Structure formats: C-alpha cells, structure tokens
Amino acid sequence: MLGQMQSQPLLISSLITHAERHHGSTEIVSRRVEGDIHRSTWGQVSRRARQVANALDSLHLAFGDRVATLAWNGYRHLELYFGVSGTGRVLHTLNPRLHPEQLAWIVNHADDRAICFDMSFLPLVQAVAGKCPGVKHWIALCDADKLPADSGLPGLVSYEAWMGSQSEKYLWPDLDENSASSMCYTSGTTGNPKAALYSHRSTLLHAYGAALPDALGCSARDSILPVVPMFHVNAWGLPYSAAAVGCKLVFPGPAMDGKSVYELIESEKVSMAAGVPTVWQMLLGHMQQNNLRFSTMKRTVIGGSACPPAMINAFNDTYGVEVLHAWGMTEMSPLGTVCTLKNAQLVLPAEEQLKVRLKQGRAVYGVDMKIVDESGNELPWDGKAYGDLLVRGPWIIASYFKGEGGDPLRYDDAGKGWFPTGDVATIDADGFMQITDRSKDVIKSGGEWISSIDVENIAMAHPAVAMAACVGMKHPKWDERPIVVVMKKPGAEVTREELLAFYEGKIAKWQVPDDVVFVDAIPLGATGKMQKMTLRQQLKDYVLPGL
Q1: What's residue 448's pLDDT?
Q2: Which of 166, 348, 480, 498 has a beta carbon 3.0–4.6 Å from 51's, enabling a disulfide?
Q3: pLDDT (0 to 100) of residue 467
C-alpha cells in the first residue's frame, strides 16, 4: 500500500520560491569587491535569480551543462546558486586559491561552458582562459561601466548587462529531484582532484539536516555570516538552509581580515558566523589587541580543520560565544557532525565540557557513521578504540564525477556501501566522534600511535604560538618520531627548550616531540587547511637531533 500524499520533487528552486514568498523583505547584506556595502533582500535575490535563468536560456545551454563561478561570498553569487541549478544546469564552484594550471585542468575536466567571475579574479581568469577552449561564455560579476575595455576575453559581458535586461518572469521547471544540481572538486592533496556531483534531492535534505537545532540551528531570528567561502562545498549548505528558514545573510566578500569581519558582525548584528580556524584566529587577534567585545554574536561554527582548545576557551570564556565544532568533507555535501552538547554534558564541570567540545561531535540525522579496524571489523563506541571512519547517507557520494578513481565505497556484510573518509577517529558512548588524525598523517613510533592533533593543540595553547603542525620524521629505531613546526605570533618569542618544556605533564613523555622547527609561515591549502605534504617536502633535508 502506498501513502496518499502529494508528490513533489525536492528542488533547489523551491527554496528560493519559499524565501521570496515568506521572507521577501529579509535583508541580504554584502561587502562587494568594490569595497562598498550592498543591501538586497530575499525577494530581490529571487527575482534576479529568475532573470539569471532567462539569461542562461538565451545562451542555449543544454540541460546538465556546467556553469562555473569564481566568486567571493556576495548577493550575485547567491543569485547564481539558485538561478543556475533551478534551470537544470549544474553550478560548478571553482576555488580561486588553486594554481592556474590546476584550475584550468578542473575547468576542462568539468566541461564548463560558462564562467562567472568577480573582477578581483580577472588576472586569474586571463591566465586560464587560453587553456580552456570549452568555455564559450565569460561573465564578469560587475556593472556594465566597470567592464575593462581590453580584457583579452572573447565576448566578455558584465553580469548586470547580461541578466539585467531579462524578464523577472520565469517558471522553474519540474525536474527529477535526482538531477545534478551542483559540483565541487576535492582539494586534491594527492594527484588530480575529483568532483562530487550533488543532486537537488541531496542538497535539500542537507539543507534540512544542517538547519536542525542540534546542527547549525538556523532560524528566521538569525543574522548569519558565512565566512566559509561559497566557492568551497556550497559554503557548508548555509545559502540553502538560510533560504529554507528565511534568516538574514551577511556576506564578507573578499575582506576576511579580523577588522573587516568584526565590523560586519557588529554593524549587521550577526548572531552566528561560520568559518575555518585561520579566519577566527585573525578575528580574535584583532579583538584582543583592541580590547573589543561582541554585542550580538551568540555562536560560531568552526570546521575545516580541528579547532585548538585555546580558541574554544577564548570564544566561550572571554567573549561568551558558544563554539560549535563541526566536521565534514566535500564528498559529504559537506556536513557530517556538529558538537552540540546534550543534557548529560551540560551538567559537567567546565573542564569536562571542554573535553567534549573539542570533539567533532554527533552525527547529523541523515549521516550514519562507524569506525573499523584494518580488517573492516566495526570497533566499539567507547571513546578509546580508534579506527578508520566510514560514513553513509543520502548526501554522501556514491561515486565521483566521470567515475574517476573507480568505486570509492567499502561494502559491509549486508552489501551496504560506506564511504571511507580517510580520517582516523574515536566515537564515545554518547555518539561524539573525535578525529584523531588523517590516516596518512598518523605517527607510529615504536609500534605506538601518536595523535598529531594532540601535539599541535598543546603547542597552540602557548601564548607565543600562532600556528603549529606536527609531522612524523623517520627514525632508525622508533620508525617515526614527531616534531612540531611552529609559526610564532608577531613580536612574540619562545625558544625550542621553552616550548618542549611546555609539554611536561600534558602528554605522555614518549609522545612529546623530539624537536621544534620555527618557520615564517606554515603552508595552507586552498581551503585554509595545513598542507602537511608540502611541509614534509620543505623538511626533506631535516634530520632529527642526535642522528
């Protein structure tokens, strides 16, 4: 027997239709590339998304054709999020922090037909355009009078001229909810990057899951600042969840420095912000130097890489902002877990609560997870056993675009496919998961396992340390020994001996790093994560003390 309810496909266009109808006057605030503050509304974004849809139809792009963006977080990028996917084309967000050669490879691999870009990326676009013969349309996200006369790009048009003359009337097509909606390439730490191809269905389910109170907790009462860039994994689903709940959105554009972010938070009465630790470091540094406080900020979501305890303490204790530790990846749309406390944890002493907050958190409904040993046997949820983290769910990939890399899944005895995340983790009895390492970054010393994250967190707690990375170095007796690579805060001083002494009593003696290497900068990837592979290459001639 079937249920007797209306059948309606889960489509991205339904989100923007809802936002316009029920939250049409709610503000969308953007700091533009031009430097000024632009004010729009959900109603305007919806109308302009329909103009984008008509403009795309005028280009005679086929169903499923890829339309790429090279853009910061702003209202035009938001319009493209809905306007492209709503028509049945695929929105392909490109990461401008990639090397031009890698970017050109991605554009060609994706078969992008059009690229919409912010003017600050014009030099990058000029560097890749000649290597991307498949791109037929170049659209600059600017007013017609801001278009350069000699860009060297064939047929370059301004976004406002391209879509501004189009009708605001457009009937969103009734698509199959399993149709592709958007795509994002992995950061490609090894070999060429691979693309996750999201569907309308997976995107909407993710938007529901992300908005839940125990996830990101989005509501119409919020003013949300996504500092996490929209060119990376759909800005953690926030543009979609925001449309579903009708909250105010505040976009930082290219200005991610501490001062700019703080001023936006205060002027636009931001209640929640989301970003990677490196951005929050800059924000906290600015606030500490100038003795500033938040007036409206209630919570911040921190993901992308592990959040140091010192950062959680600074937000919670000094500024009264709840830190929601989150974890996910490109292949997961990206949200997997969020660390929101249960009643049982709320009554714990502050020190014990912090231990929980340092974990990546509990699975959002829609995500199932488990940890397994090398033979694939499931391990207990006791907070001690660690193993490879596997996930499955309706917004987790089944295969990569064009079948790259073959079947990525691992199958259990029941034939269910699980995606191997590449993370090593523990899960406690309450379901709180903690990443202990990337599988390729695990340090094995004398048969014992050392968590590089634990070593990094202790170093980060030292007042002179801005950033720390722990890597394993070859040792003839112990196989590997950890060292910590440190970038000092401006004007701060700390010696090797002082930092090693700082580890006393905080970690087992055999886990204390053998050495401290001071550097001017730790290499960061396109998503703000530390690039340990690059770091190892930089340290290829390094020899451990005493060898």
Answers
A1: 67
A2: 166
A3: 92
Task: Write out residues in the chain with pLDDT < 50, as ranges.
Answer: 189
* Structural domains of the chain, ranges and CATH numbers in brackets: 12-26+38-223 (3.40.50.12780), 443-538 (3.30.300.30)
341: CB partners within 8 A, 6+ apart:
353, 356, 357
Structure tokens that stand for 173 in this block: 């097509």
N-to-C CA span, the chain? 73
Q: Which two tokens stand for residue 148?
A: 């350069």
- In the structure, how many helices (H) and strands (E) does the chain have? 16, 26
d(C-alpha 434, C-alpha 520), whole Å: 30
pLDDT of residue 244: 98
The pLDDT tens digits for 285-302 are 999 999 999 999 999 999
The owner of tokens 């714990």 is: 348
pLDDT of residue 506: 85
Partners of 93 in the β-ladder: 69
Strands (E), 83-169: 90-93, 112-117, 137-140, 157-158
Q: Is 131 exposed, middle or buried (0-12, 13-18, 19+ CB in 10 A)?
A: middle
Q: What is the pLDDT of residue 233?
A: 87
Average pLDDT, the chain: 93
Phi, psi of 86 (to 5 degrees): -60, -25
Q: Which one-letter amino acid corresponds to residue 233?
A: V
pLDDT at position 188 is: 54
Contact status, residue 310 vs residue 252, Cβ threshold 8 Å: no
Cis check: omega of the bond before 334, within 30 degrees of 0: yes
Residue with tokens 């001639």: 541
Contacts of 5 (CB under 8 A, 6+ apart): none
Structure tokens at 31: 């700091």
Q: What's the predicted TM-score (pTM) here?
A: 0.86
Q: Are strands 362-363 and 368-372 parallel, antiparallel or unpaired?
A: unpaired
Q: Is the Cβ–Cβ distance between 433 and 359 less than 8 Å?
A: yes
Alpha-carbon distance of 337 to 418, in angstroms, equals 16
Residues 6+ apart with CB under 8 A from 533: 189, 190
3-state secondary structure 277-317: HHHHHHHHHHHHHHCCCCCCCCEEEECCCCCCHHHHHHHHH
